[in-house]
Amino acid sequence: MKRRDFILSGTATLAAAALPNLAIAAVDYAPGLVQKHLDAGDTVFLDFKADWCGTCKAQERVINALKSENGDYEKNITFVNVDWDAYSKADLTKRLKIPRRSTLVVLKGNKELGRIVAGTSKDQIKDLMDTALTASVA
C-alpha cells in the first residue's frame, strides 16, 4: 500500500468512526407518543421545529453537540421532534401553549420542567437538557 493510499484510508476510517456522533436522531412526533412516554415514566424533551426555520437549525446543532459530549442525555431522555408545519394546531401544541416553532420543552409525568422559546445559547440549552437529565435519574 502506498503512503498516500494509507493516509486516505486512515482518514476515511476516522471520519466514519465520528459519523455516529454528528447527528443523533430523535423520535418524530405522532399523536399519543408523548403521553405513552410520560405514562412509562420517561422524561421527554420536545423540540417544536420546522425544516425552514434557521433558529430551529441552530438549536438542533447545539442539541446534537451536547448529546455528543454527554451520552447520558441520549440514554436517559426521550427526544421528540414535533414538526411545526404538521402539528402547530394539534392538541399537544395547544395544551402546552406553544407560541411558535423553535420552542423546546421538557416534561416529566404531568409537569413541565422547563422551556426555551427561540433561544440558541449553548448554556441555556444545556441547562434545559441538564434539568431533563436530573429528572430522569431522580
Order of helices and strands: HEHEHHEHHEEH
Rg, Å, rounded? 17 Å
Give the neighbour order of strands across the main sheet.
Answer: 1-3-2-4-5
Count of alpha and pi helical runs: 7
Number of strands: 5
The coarse silhouette is globular
Largest sheet: 5 strands, mixed
How far apart the termini lie comes to 54 Å
Q: Structural class given helices, strands, pairing?
A: alpha/beta
Fraction of helical residues: 40-55%
What is the average per-residue confidence, as pLDDT, rounded to a whole number? 88
Percentage of β-strand residues: 15-25%
Uncertain regions: pLDDT < 50 for 5+ in a row?
A: 4-23
Helix-strand blueprint:
Blueprint: H1 3-22, E1 27-28, H2 33-39, E2 43-49, H3 54-69, H4 71-76, E3 77-83, H5 84-87, H6 91-95, E4 103-108, E5 111-117, H7 122-137
Parallel strand pairs: 1-3, 2-3
Antiparallel strand pairs: 2-4, 4-5
Brief overview, please?
The protein is an alpha/beta fold and 138 residues long.
Comma- or semicolon-separated keywords:
alpha/beta; 7 helices
Descriptive overview:
- This protein is α/β, with parallel strands linked by helices.
- 54% of the residues lie in helices and 21% in strands.
- Strands 1-3-2-4-5 form a five-stranded mixed sheet, sandwiched between helices.
- Helix 3 crosses helix 7 (122-137).
- The longest helix has 20 residues, at 3-22.
- It is globular, with a radius of gyration of 17 Å.
- It starts with a helix and ends with a helix.
